[in-house]
Amino acid sequence: MKTNTESIAKRGVISPYQLFFIFLVSRAVVALTFFQAILINGISPDTLISALLALIINLLLCLPSFLCVKQNKNPLDTKAGRIFYLVYFVFYAGINISRFAFFASDKTSHGASSMLFAVLMCAAACYAAYLGIEALARFSVLCAVLSIIVLLLIVALNIKNFHLINFMPFYAQEKANIFKNSIVFSSNSIEPALFMALSKRCGKKPAKPLFFGIIASYGAIVVMLLFCIGVLGRAASLFSFPVYTLFQMTAFKSFSRLDIVYTAFGFFALFAKCAVLIYCSGQCIIKLNPKGKSILLFAVSLISSIMIYRRFYSEISGSARLFYGAAALAFLVIIPLGYLIFSKRKYKNESNF
User: Fold this and answer.
1) Cα diameter, the chain
2) CA angle 225, 229, 235 (to 5 degrees)
3) Model pTM score
4) What residues pair up with 252 in beta bridges, in sequence order?
5) What is the C-alpha R_g of the chain?
6) What is each CA distance from 122 to 26, 115, 138, 154, 278, in whole angstroms?
7) Which of 44, 148, 159, 263 is 20 to 30 A from 124 via CA?
8) Nearest to 23 by CA among 52, 49, 62
9) 192 upstream amide cis, omega within 30 of 0
10) pLDDT value of residue 256
């Protein structure tokens, strides 16, 4: 029989497979809420090459965070590191909330106020984060399973509409733009930073879920892009959300439109990612009580999402792409590597690896 001490000790701990699904949902949700205007010249057949290059870049971006955790030189163990990554997590929570608000106001409610959607998402995500990592992990597993079902559904129902001729000519852009689009894909990655925040919450072997989660998520992204191009052809670049358009065109017997399925499951996955980001933000504020944490993060996330929506989603520009890339370079490479090189190792922590 387990003692009370043993039960308490296991609270706040998640399994490796739950961590895998958190990373899978976090990265694959980009495909479900894909706003193709962020790419240079929009979606085209060579975007598939950009996605595969982005996978390689993402795996390389994971190495500094992996080494920091393995060598027990985690920047989040310092006060300055917690402040920096608090800003980073809240900023990306704001990005995802603004992405949700933009999509919801533009596609699902015919121009309704994006402010309402941002407030609702912020409040729900903060409450979910307040429930703890165990609840978030279970919900992420559910979202991942539903997303996989949706992916299989869209593949099965659109095979008859898939035409290889839509991939001709394959190289529609300059080689420089293909590489730039891969940078855009990879700069949206937050998973290496999440790994530093959640590695201590994983019971054992937290590294495998990180790498396998990113590989699996890019597999889902490539399949989504493949069918967007194979079914929509050149018309894919005309739609703000080509994956959503793909679902609108999908029919099954008497069900002529399945975009409600896309919308519901996409929102679930996006909500899970926002909640995990806000939870990690809360872990960076160790001196506040849970209630104070939730109120503060709700206010900051809401304000940041409104600012990001007005600045980045009202007009996607080269400066916005540059900003995303610079943020990823700073928080996923420079800070972890700097701390890894110049800090001292406190104690051995290799048993989980």
Assistant:
1) 66
2) 125
3) 0.84
4) 255
5) 20
6) 17, 11, 20, 30, 9
7) 148
8) 62
9) no
10) 60
